[in-house]
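Co-fold these.
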Amino acid sequence: DTEVTQTPKHLVMGMTNKKSLKCEQHMGHRAMYWYKQKAKKPPELMFVYSYEKLSINESVPSRFSPECPNSSLLNLHLHALQPEDSALYLCASSQDRSFGTDTQYFGPGTRLTVL
Amino acid sequence: DQQVKQNSPSLSVQEGRISILNCDYTNSMFDYFLWYKKYPAEGPTFLISISSIKDKNEDGRFTVFLNKSAKHLSLHIVPSQPGDSAVYFCAASALNGQNFVFGPGTRLSVLP
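Predicted complex below.
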C-alpha cells in the first residue's frame, strides 16, 4: 500500500479565512513533505518533516504554518492567504530521509482557490 | 538555474510505438533519479527509479537508462498506450540528503 490521502480535495477561501489542509499516511514513513504546484510547473518544495520535526522550510511565508501531530499526520494551516497562493497543494511521504534512495509517494492534492 | 532539465515540453507518439522522454541534470552530486507521471489535478505517481550504480532499470513497459558521464537519463515506454498520456516529471536527489529537484516536465500524448 503506497497511499497518501489528503483532505479536502478542493478548498475555496477568502483572504481573511483560516483553514487547514490535512495529509495522512499509514505506510510507516518517517518523512513527510508539503509541495505547492502551480499550473504547468513542477512541484515546489515548501516544508519537510523528518521524524515529526520540521527539518526544512524553503523560505515559505508565515501565512503557511505546518504541523506534524504524529508520524502519520501532517497539517498545513492557512491564514490570510493571497490570491496568488491559489495552487494545487501536494503532500508526500517517504520512508526515511537519511537514505539517499528514498522514493517519495504523493497524495492526490488539495486544489486551493483564494478569492 | 535549473539543475534538472527536460528540454522537450511536449511529445506526441503513435499508440504501440516507443515513447522516449529525456532528462538532463547539471549537479554531479545527484545519484538517485526518479520518474513520475502526473494527470491534471492529481498528485504525481511514482513510476520507476534508478540509482547511479546502475545504468538501466526495467519495470514492465517502462525502462530508465542512465548515462552518468553525460548526466543524462531517459525513460522508454514500450509499447505506448493512450492511457500513458500525461505529464512526466524527472526528479533527482543526492545521498547527502538534498531534497528532490523536479524537472519542468514533458507532456506526452499517445495518439490512437
